[in-house]
Every structure is written in structure tokens, then in C-alpha cells.
């Protein structure tokens, strides 16, 4: 297992992060996504830790707080030292019926962090992330609230998830010029079938030294190699019940076909190749995996030891290439003579 620097901090996290979205069950989408009880979740956490994972990611909204409760209790039952694990959680999602039980306001953040700490049975959260972009709350208010939490020691680092490039850059600017704690990470969707992040967000992350935490690297299981072009897959499969994230199916299955050939050559699963492809990207800090079974977890963990050749990466880059989009195609045309050359 490799360990990467988290953003521009001195903290190192495993390149594979165990996501806890499958823990807890409940109603709606969370019943379809997972529904694992404490015993099953504890077993997965134990195996992940044995495999070198030191990074766990959850959110208050996952199964209405049950995921956080399970993570906290599982770590306690396993006797894991707090310093041996990096815990990330999030706030923003609706956690009640009140008008202020949602969002990235100072009020909701302060209320949410206290409840998350209680559920997780810990005195601090290593990485506290704003789960979605709030178009109502001024970004200055959000940044200041997170800065206060870091100064109080309740939160070590701050991050965000599913933000647009301009909004993230604005938040970084606010933090810099007010001497506040900044966002060290962005958690975002990225997969071989969904490389949109590379247009504007990846250059921002690289320029500002912000870490990328990838969610749904298998596109909700579609890239596991277990689905056919008609959408048929294993019984009980998450993607069959919850068709998310949106994917261009023709492009996705072209990628699956290319990955299947590579998987056969390596004696690996298609899912393992899909994860190895994402892990090979230099701008990726960690890939979040969300297993429901021990077999899935073991296969996902094995992606950390699968090294794709330069030729294989080029082949996968080609089949998954993004269609040209303005201003990208114009920047490439006009900036050809100004492209930095490798030394």
C-alpha cells in the first residue's frame, strides 16, 4: 500500500480509502447501496486495516447517521489506536425537517460537527468536508466556520466535495487572504468512463496542491465487468437498483471491452484494472472503495499492487478520451508552442 500526502499538509493517507456508504442501511438509496450491519462492517474495516488502509470516509447523511455510528463503534471494538487511522466525514445533507438542518451555514456546520463527533466516539475529525456546494451561504461564512473548528481542535483539516472549480478557487482565495484554514481536498467523481474532472478541476488541484479523493471509481459498479450492454448484471447489484452516477453507456462499455483484454493478460478482474487506471493518475491522492462483501474488498485492495504498463495506460487513455470542448480545443491550438517541455 502506498501512502500519499493529503493536499498540502504533512498528513499521509493510504492510496485506497475505505468508504462507509454501505454501512447502516436504512431507507431509500442507502438500502440499495449497502445495508451492512455492525458485524459485517467491522469485518470489512478489520480486513482493510490489515491490508494497509489507514483512511476511512463517511458522512453524517449516510443512513441518517448510522454509518458514522458503525465506524466509531467498529474502531472501538477492534481496539484501533486513534492515531493509526485517519477519519473523514462530511456535512451539508439534510439531517432533519427544520429549515436550517441542511447546508454549509455556520449554524449547520457547528451543529453537525458536534453530532458527528458523538456518533464517531472521538474528540476530533481528521478531515471534515462540506458535502455539496451551497449556493446560498457566502463562501466566507463557510471558510470561517471551518477555520474556527480547526483552531478549537475539533477538526484537523477541511475539505469539500462536488464543488465547481470557480467556487473552490474562490474558497482557497478567501482562506489565503484571511489567514484561515483552507480546503486541502476535493472529493469528486472520477473514473475511466467519467474523466470530465480533467478539463478544469484537475489543473486547479495541481496548481493549488489540493488533494483529490475519488468517489465511485467503478461508476457505481458499471465498470466491474459484470454488466452487459443491456444493463443486466448480478442480482442485487447496486447499479441495477440505483443507476448512478450518469454515464455515457456506449463509451463506458468500450472502456470495459478494452479493460477486459488487459485484465485477462494480468489474470485480474476488470474492476481491478479500472481502479489501477485511476490510481495511476498523478493527481489522485486516494481512491474510495465501497465494498459490500469480503470478496469485493479483497479484489479492490489488490488494485494497489497492479501496475499497468505505459502501453496499457495509453490504450485506456485513448478509448476513454474526452470529446473536444471549448475552450480546451482552442487552448491546445493556440498554446502548442508554449507547452512546458519535460526537463
What is the share of helical residues?
40-55%
Number of strands: 10
Mean pLDDT: 95
Please provide the ordered H/E string of secondary-structure elements.
Answer: EEEHHEHEHEHEHEHEHHHEHHH
Domain count, please report it. 1
> How does the overall form come out from the CA principal axes?
globular
CATH topology: TIM Barrel
Instruction: Write down the CATH class.
Output: Alpha Beta
Give the helix/strand class: alpha/beta
The percentage of residues in β strands lies in 5-15%
| Rg of Cα set | 20 Å
> Order of strands across the widest beta sheet?
3-4-5-6-7-8-9-10
**Uncertain spans:** none
End-to-end separation? 29 Å
Question: Helix count, per DSSP?
Answer: 13
Report on this structure:
- With 343 residues, the protein is an alpha/beta fold.
- It has one domain: Alpha-Beta Barrel (TIM Barrel), CATH 3.20.20.100.
- Helix content is 40%, strand content 14%.
- The chain is built from 13 helices and ten strands.
- The strands form two sheets. It has an eight-stranded parallel barrel with strand order 3-4-5-6-7-8-9-10, surrounded by six helices. A two-stranded antiparallel ribbon has the order 1-2.
- Helix 3 packs parallel to helix 4.
- The radius of gyration is 20 Å and the shape is globular.
- The mean pLDDT is 95.
Amino acid at each position: 500500500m502506498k501512502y500519499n500526502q493529503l493536499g498540502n499538509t504533512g498528513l499521509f493517507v493510504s492510496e485506497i480509502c475505505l468508504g462507509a456508504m454501505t454501512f447502516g442501511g436504512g431507507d431509500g438509496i442507502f438500502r440499495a447501496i449497502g445495508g451492512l450491519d455492525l458485524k459485517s462492517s467491522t469485518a470489512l474495516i478489520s480486513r482493510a486495516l490489515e491490508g494497509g488502509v489507514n483512511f476511512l470516509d463517511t458522512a453524517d447523511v449516510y443512513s441518517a447517521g448510522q454509518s458514522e455510528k458503525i465506524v466509531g463503534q467498529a474502531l472501538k471494538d477492534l481496539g484501533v489506536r486513534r492515531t493509526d487511522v485517519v477519519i473523514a466525514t462530511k456535512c451539508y445533507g439534510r439531517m432533519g425537517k427544520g429549515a436550517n438542518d441542511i447546508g454549509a451555514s455556520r449554524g449547520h456546520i457547528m451543529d453537525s460537527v458536534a453530532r458527528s463527533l458523538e456518533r464517531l466516539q472521538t474528540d476530533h475529525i481528521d478531515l471534515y468536508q462540506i458535502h455539496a456546494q451551497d449556493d446560498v451561504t457566502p463562501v466566507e461564512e463557510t471558510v470561517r466556520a471551518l477555520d474556527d473548528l480547526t483552531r478549537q481542535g475539533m477538526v484537523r483539516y477541511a475539505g469539500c466535495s462536488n464543488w465547481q472549480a470557480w467556487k473552490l478557487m474562490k474558497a482557497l482565495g478567501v482562506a489565503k487572504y484571511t489567514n484561515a484554514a483552507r480546503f486541502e481536498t476535493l472529493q469528486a467523481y472520477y473514473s475511466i468512463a467519467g474523466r470530465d474532472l480533467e478539463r478544469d478541476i484537475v489543473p486547479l488541484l495541481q496548481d493549488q496542491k489540493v488533494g483529490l479523493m475519488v468517489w465511485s471509481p467503478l461508476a457505481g459498479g458499471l465498470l466491474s465487468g459484470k454488466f452487459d450492454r443491456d444493463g443486466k448484471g448480478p442480482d442485487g447489484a447496486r447499479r441495477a437498483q440505483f443507476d448512478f452516477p450518469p454515464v455515457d453507456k456506449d463509451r463506458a462499455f468500450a472502456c470495459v471491452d478494452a479493460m477486459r483484454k488487459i485484465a485477462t493478460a494480468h489474470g485480474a478482474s476488470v474492476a481491478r484494472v479500472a481502479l489501477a487506471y485511476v490510481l495511476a493518475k498523478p493527481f489522485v491522492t486516494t481512491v474510495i472503495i465501497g465494498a459490500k462483501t469480503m470478496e469485493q474488498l479483497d479484489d479492490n485492495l489488490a488494485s494497489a499492487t497492479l501496475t499497468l504498463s505505459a502501453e496499457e495506460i495509453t490504450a485506456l487513455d485513448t478509448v476513454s478520451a474526452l470529446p473536444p470542448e471549448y475552450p480546451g480545443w482552442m487552448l491546445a491550438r493556440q498554446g502548442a508552442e508554449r507547452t512546458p517541455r519535460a526537463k
